[in-house]
Write a structure and sequence with these properties.
The complex is a heterodimer of chains A (about 110) and B (about 110). With about 110 residues, chain A is mainly beta. Helix content of chain A is about 0%, strand content about 45%. Chain A has strands spanning about 5, 10-15, 20, 25, 30-40, 45-50, 60, 70-75, 85-90, 95-100, 100-105. Chain B is built from no helices and eleven strands. Classes of the chains: A mainly beta (about 110), B mainly beta (about 110).
Chain lengths: ~110, ~110
């Protein structure tokens, strides 16, 4: 069974502060992990996926198989980063399992 | 190149009525997925369809819910005899293949009175 846990419902930081949104997963095989973002009044969109090893909008995420984590990080938060962030896992099938989301609020 | 379109964006129904939610995938995409998001919860997979075929409906409630993706026209998620517990946001996503990135629509927010 696949499971994705985002332990924080809400994360509140000030502009310029570092951000880390936590994601832990449970899956016995080789996972494919994603971060999706949903800005206010906009649709859910893919932010990054671990296999591409990209940095999007200053965000990075590293897959740690030992800790079964895929935390999303950004060294200096911006106000426009305020959004809902969803971690998702695809265990080799077409059906990703989503976490319940973390609301990030960046204060000026 | 329009993204995934969903309509209506908001739908209000009384208990016992039917709700029809429409999803037009990205042009050229033949794979459609429906998800439900209850308040305070993550997205939950409901059903995966390709043109004219239901591939996986393991997340769909056994009664009152059905989905289709006809050869022509949008995918439809149909909820018969709605109950208050059906109130949620319903998202549709499409992809060009079953292992490819899913693109999401804006969602339909269903409220059952």
């Amino acid at each position: 069974a696949q499971r994705v846990t985002q332990p924080e419902k809400l994360l509140s930081v000030f502009k310029g502060a570092p951000v880390e949104l936590k994601c832990n997963y449970s899956y016995s095989g080789s996972p494919e992990l994603f971060w999706y973002v949903q800005y206010s009044r906009q649709r859910l969109q893919l932010l990054l996926r671990h296999i591409s090893r990209e940095s999007i909008k200053g965000f990075t995420a590293d897959l740690n198989k030992g800790e079964t984590s895929f935390h999303l990080k950004k060294p200096f938060a911006q106000e426009e980063d305020s959004a809902m962030y969803y971690c998702a896992l695809s265990g080799g099938s077409y059906i990703p399992t989503f976490g319940r989301g973390t609301s990030l609020i960046v204060h000026p | 190149n329009a993204g995934v379109m969903q309509n209506p964006r908001h739908l209000v129904r009384r208990r016992g009525q039917e709700a029809r939610l429409r999803c037009s995938p990205v042009k050229g995409h033949s794979h459609v997925y429906w998800y439900r998001q209850l308040p305070e919860e993550g997205l939950k997979f409901m059903v995966y369809l390709q043109k004219e075929n239901i591939i996986d409906e393991s997340g769909m409630p056994k009664e009152r819910f059905s989905a289709e993706f006809p050869k022509e026209g949008p995918s439809i998620l149909r909820i018969q005899q709605v109950v208050r517990g059906d109130s949620a946001a319903y998202f549709c996503a499409s992809s060009g293949g079953n292992q490819e990135t899913q693109y999401f629509g804006p969602g339909t927010r269903l409220l059952v009175l």
